[in-house]
Design goal:
This is Helix-turn-helix domain-containing protein. The chain has five helices and two strands. The chain is mostly helical. The chain has a two-stranded antiparallel sheet.
């Protein structure tokens, strides 16, 4: 095995910053790929960002994850991360029907149940 002489390259601070950004992206992509889901690292939110997105305090988000009320990821036992699309789904599951929708369902139920029963006369 031959030892090669080091190669020195002059880099500007901007070049170093760009390289660091790309390396960070690659490392994050590798870590998130280990989660077994198809998602871009930018699709994940930290606890603070999830709190801002949902309009809760970070302490509320932590409590909700502790109680398993919110879907979250914890790669390698590290920090808690939230997939934005899953938070959107969680929001949709909490939809409350309007009074008009409830009235329509009630009317449909009454109509269908009255059709299925015969009146004694």
């Amino acid at each position: 095995m031959t030892i090669q002489e080091p190669i020195y390259v002059r880099l500007s601070p901007e070049d170093i910053k760009e390289i660091a950004t790309e390396v960070t992206k690659m490392l994050r992509a590798r870590d998130y790929g280990n989660l077994g889901i198809e998602a871009h690292p930018n699709d994940f939110l930290t606890t603070q960002r999830a709190a801002e997105y949902l309009g809760f305090a970070p302490s509320t988000i932590r409590k909700m994850t502790s109680n398993k009320e919110l879907p979250y990821y914890k790669p390698r036992g590290g920090r808690v991360l939230f997939l934005k699309s899953e938070l959107d789904d969680w929001i949709r599951k909490g939809r409350v029907k309007s009074f008009e929708e409830i009235e329509t369902e009630a009317a449909t139920y009454v109509t269908l149940s009255s059709m299925g029963t015969k009146r004694k006369g």
